[in-house]
Specification:
CATH superfamily: Transcriptional regulator MraZ domain
Number of strands: 8
Structural class: alpha+beta
GO biological process, one term: negative regulation of DNA-templated transcription initiation
CATH architecture: 3-Layer(aba) Sandwich
Helix content: 25-40%
Largest sheet: 6 strands, antiparallel
Number of domains: 1
Pfam family, one: MraZ
Distance between the termini: 21 Å
Protein name: Transcriptional regulator MraZ
Strand content: 15-25%
Order of helices and strands: EEHEEHHEEHEEH
Organism: freshwater metagenome
GO molecular function: DNA-binding transcription factor activity; transcription cis-regulatory region binding
């Protein structure tokens, strides 16, 4: 399970060192793709295969499904971390997420997310109050 908040830097070659806690889950391969909220999603290859099986069930006749799949999959890039745990983020994905040198990598259970540090700080400041005020069941069975 991928958890926590980490603050690696993007090097001049567009590489990021994966947090040590994430390396076991991601060492055999991962998929980077556009996430929602202008971040990048990072899935282990195994997790992405499971997602792909679900995606295959989407009806081709649904415009909303086609639109989502085009955005989600067209930016996907499969990568294998090097011996130092570094992975290259393709230029198009760096641009999409507005990544600068300072990054935040968060664990969100079955995936990680890569954020520009300023974008993450802004997102957290805007959403933290909403989080504390949730009074209904957002995730069934959690509370």
């Amino acid at each position: 399970m991928l958890l926590g908040t980490h603050a690696p830097k993007l090097d001049e070659k567009g590489r990021v060192i994966l947090p040590a806690k994430f390396r076991d889950d991601l060492s055999s391969g991962l998929v980077l793709t556009r996430g929602q909220d202008r971040c990048l999603y990072v899935f282990s290859s195994k997790e992405f295969e499971a997602i792909n099986e679900t995606i295959r069930q989407a009806p081709i006749t649904s415009k909303q499904a086609r639109d989502y799949l085009r955005i989600f999959l067209s930016g996907a890039s499969d990568e294998i971390p090097d011996k130092q745990g570094r992975v290259t983020i393709p230029p198009a994905l760096r641009t999409y997420a507005g990544l600068g040198k300072e990054l935040v990598v968060i664990g969100v259970g079955s995936r990680a997310e890569i954020w520009d540090a300023t974008a993450w700080t802004d997102y957290l400041a805007n959403k933290e109050n909403d989080f504390s005020e949730i009074s209904e069941e957002v995730i069934p069975g959690l509370f």
